[in-house]
Amino acid sequence: MPLNENAKSVPAAKPAANGRNGRKIWLSHTGLGGLDRCPRCFWLQYRQGIYQPEGIVSRLANRFDVLVKHYFDRFRGTDELPPIVAGHVEGRLESPFQEEYFYRVDDQYGFKGKLDECLVRADGTYTPVDHKTSSSDPRIERAMYASYQEQLDAYAFLLESNGKPTSGIGHLIYYYPDSTEDLHNGVQMAVVVKTLKTDPLSVLPRIKRGITVLEQPIPDPSPECVFCIWRERVGNFIPAKL
Ligand code: SF4
User: Which domain holds residue 214?
Assistant: First the structure.
């Protein structure tokens, strides 16, 4: 099936919720990542709206994301690229920028995603971009997280399925606070662009795998997960009334 066949019924507005209750379930790249970790947690999230507790999380990266996006916006609508990435990426910033995309699977399920940035090349193809605040030096070569590859694949899939042909690549732009003797002059950021080939065709099978799990009864807990083991043990000490 052509990727854009199902994008015609894309909702104009953001869908209301992920819960079933007669409403469509909108899967996402992040949600499908949960399926890889534990199908039971994935099922609880989408079928019951029960999420794992978040714990204590730093919001510093969110703030940095906002600053970076504002900076990129200064160059939108021009032929100029932000100097921190010029020479490392091809094209111009998409203008106007479409952040959110939806793909309708059927009446019950869809897939959605939100891009950080998108480049448009002279040949009319689109390149998805994701900003990554990094706590380790991206200039040192390490194995790429599989989820980063899947994220760019998901964006390429959403672009293609919404009638935007992709360039076959995506960029991860890493921002890393560099060491400096002159901290009084501000924090220096090392900016590193990594380019990955994208595979939009890999995404639909992942979506279908997620739907298969959601259409079945709740899966067993992951045997490696310490939380469910803890809950089971603690449950032995909690009176039935509670
Ligand atoms: S085993 Fe239990 S707590 Fe752990 S991830 Fe799965 S459902 Fe969640």
Answer: 3-235
Question: How confident is the model at residue 2, as a pLDDT?
Answer: 46
Q: What is the token pair recorded at 1?
A: 């099936």
Q: Which of 64, 155, 170 is nearest to 114 (CA)?
A: 155
The answer to whether residue 240 is domain-embedded is no
| Distance of alpha carbon 206 from alpha carbon 39, whole angstroms | 13
Q: Quote the ligand 1 centre to 212 CA distance (angstroms).
A: 18
Does the residue 7 lie in any domain? yes
Helix (H, G, I), strand (E, B) or coil at 128: strand
φ, ψ for residue 44, nearest 5 deg? -60, -40
DSSP secondary structure of 131-151? EEE-SS-TTS--PPPHHHHHH
Within a domain: residue 217?
Answer: yes
**pLDDT tens-digit series, residues 61-101:** 889 899 999 999 999 999 999 999 999 999 999 999 999 99
- Could you count the other beta carbons within 10 Å of the beta carbon of residue 70? 9
Ligand 1 atom, smallest distance to 52 CA = 8
Three-state SS at 44: helix
Taking a C-beta distance cutoff of 8 angstroms, is the pair 193, 173 a contact?
Answer: yes
What is the Å distance from ligand 1's center to 231 Cα?
A: 10
150 belongs to a structural domain: yes
